[in-house]
From TrEMBL, chain A:
It comes from Shewanella corallii. This is DUF4920 domain-containing protein. Keywords: Signal. Residues 1-22 form the signal peptide. It comes from the Bacteria.
TrEMBL record, chain B:
The keyword Transmembrane applies. The chain crosses the membrane at residues 20-37, 138-159, 171-187. This is PepSY-associated TM helix domain-containing protein. Keywords: Membrane, Transmembrane, Transmembrane helix. PANTHER family: INNER MEMBRANE PROTEIN WITH PEPSY TM HELIX. It comes from Shewanella corallii. The keyword Transmembrane helix applies.
Length: 156, 188
């Protein structure tokens, strides 16, 4: 009897794993999937969305490799992403979430970058995209936006 | 009839022993995961990430549809899983996310393909999920109880041994050292 049970164990573990994976992975409070604002709409006039919680959805295209403390969500507009960022340990996003659809509810946060920080960020982005970058072309600071979620749901 | 007196010394030893046995599994999980999570800056304690590069024959990638593009890229990787999603990071970079959590990144200017294979670290991933309270809410209650049991083990240890090896004599220095060390880190 016991050897049979031992033989069946890997199958049971596999089946359990499959059933668990099919369910959405939820973090924090429930998300409000009925009130989704397209990321492109949000980013067109971000200052209009700073006062009340917003819900976004999109494909997860990057995840923090070390602490799972942020994810980049692809916008409905090409080449546009929005980062969702939590305090370390509040939510730990799995690396396997890449390519999955995610819904997040939270507050949009604005960071006013000074000239030096803006140049650093633009230089980093240019390097990522394999483009040349001349810091002198940046003459003023810019605003950077990210979502601080209270609830995230990763769907498979 | 005389009432049987409770032998507190024996009771304390018995409780310390049995609660200690009960805590072995939890202590190992928290300790192993603690070491793993402590070194977050040096490695990912939950996933192992394997990167490899493939050089592809130059071609006009932009002339292809996203579907054709992902098909060609998937064919470059033996045993590749199905496509979960695709994404244009910028005009020079196209990503394909696969069902088995692997990712392919095409650099259109260098014609190179980066293959990122992500796999869960067996056991460690589960231990970390428990340690960081990422499972059920009931786990929070259970780990609070475990913390209570650890407090009991620490305090009951002070009354386990009588005589010259008791912590109330010379060996009390070890107890003081255990308090002084973390206190030193706070003050330092």
């Amino acid at each position: 009897m016991l050897p049979r049970m031992i033989k069946a164990l890997p199958l049971a573990v596999l089946l359990t794993g499959l059933s668990v994976q099919a369910e959405p992975l939820n973090f924090g409070s429930p998300v409000d999937a009925t009130k989704v604002t397209p990321i492109s709409t949000l980013m067109a006039t971000p200052d209009n969305y700073l006062q009340a919680p917003v819900t976004i959805e999109g494909t997860v295209v990057a995840v923090c490799q070390k602490r799972g403390c942020w994810m980049s969500i692809a916008s409905d507009k090409r080449f546009q992403n929005l980062k969702i960022k939590v305090k370390d340990g509040d939510m730990v996003f799995p690396m396997s979430a890449k390519g999955s659809k995610a819904i997040a509810t939270g507050m949009l946060q604005k960071h006013e970058l000074d000239l030096e920080a803006t140049r650093k960020m633009m230089a980093y982005q240019a390097k990522e995209q394999g483009e040349s970058f001349d810091p002198a072309t940046i003459t003023e600071g810019m605003n950077y936006y990210q979502l601080v979620p209270v609830g995230v749901s990763i769907l498979d | 009839m005389t009432k049987a007196r409770v032998n507190w010394f024996r009771l304390n030893r018995s409780l310390h022993r049995d609660i200690g046995y009960f805590c072995i599994g939890m202590t190992l999980i928290f300790a192993i995961s603690g070491i793993a999570v402590n070194h977050n800056d040096d490695w990912n304690p939950d996933y192992s990430v394997e990167l490899s590069q493939l050089q592809l024959a130059p071609r006009d990638w932009l002339a292809l549809s996203d579907r054709e593009l992902s098909q060609i890229l998937v064919e470059q990787v033996p045993d590749a899983a199905g496509v979960k999603a695709t994404h244009w990071s910028h005009p020079g970079e196209f990503k394909v996310f696969l069902q088995d959590a692997s990712n392919l990144t095409l650099d259109l200017t260098r014609h190179s393909l980066e293959v990122e294979k992500i796999s869960k670290r067996p056991l460690l991933n589960e231990f970390n999920r428990l340690h960081l309270n990422e499972t059920h809410k009931a786990w929070v209650i259970f780990s609070d109880l475990y913390a209570g049991m650890l407090i009991f083990l620490a305090i009951s240890a002070l009354f386990m041994v009588k005589g010259r090896h008791s912590p109330w004599r010379k060996r009390g220095l070890l107890v003081l050292a255990g308090i002084a060390l973390p206190a030193g880190f706070i003050l330092w």
